[in-house]
Design goal:
300 residues, Rossmann fold, 2 domains, four-stranded parallel β-sheet
Amino acid sequence: MKRQLRNTIYIVGIILLSACKGATKNNEATETEKPVITVTIEPQRYFTEAIAGDKFSVVSMVPKGSSPETYDPIPQQLIALGKSKAYFRIGFIGFEQTWMDKLMDNTPHIQVFDTSRGIDLILGHRHEEKDSSNGHEHFHAVEPHIWNSATNALQIAQNTYNALCKLDKKNQPYYLARYDSLCHRIQHIDSLVRVRLSQPDAAKAFMIYHPALSYFARDYGLTQISIEEDGKEPSPAHLKELIDLCKEKDVHVIFVQPEFDRRNAETIARQTGTKVVAINPLNYDWETEMINVAQALSSN
């Protein structure tokens, strides 16, 4: 009931914004203001800003330190969204599954671009989560963490470039130059990761609390073991299984993310002599995070 009331308040705020938008537009807008693009997560903001340069302002809906699986936007964000020219979605993350229809219903002028188009998706991801719109539980049909992959990053960059050219065709040469530069950087990161992971002692399997590195593992032929059990804390029996599996697969690294409790990871580490490494797959600095993961796996 409280959540329904909050959602109603959000929608009323958008309606009020729309009603007064025409009256305030001339006072707020200036010729020097840049058009705004809204994206879902910080790594997307990195890719978009890398190509858009100084032609657009880019803002993220899910702020630093929040989980895009369960985040609910605050009213100020919904109001600010009305100023955006376009929304670049990442594809299948929980925030978008829950909120995208609501957001677009109340900002119909915004063009929406799906930056996951053309990506070879991992299907059958069974991460259980609460749908904040109705309280029901459901499962992802797609593994949503597509950005944690150099292969996918190239496709995201291409989709972003294409979208920017549609929004601002006259600056296509500018976007093309920056897109080419970004692709070179992504390919360079990919080559550095491959060199690190090709070392004789590099890990072939790793454990992680929330399975955000599925595409990274696929790119480089690694095995990812999730501590979460259907999106929940592992039961004592499952925790025992994870300890045994950690030993069986010769796991040396357990990754933990800032949005999740690390106590279970530390319990497994104590029982197996495994090191716990903090990473942030939602970091704006995508290049650094990719190298951090590879470094942890190659420094056994």
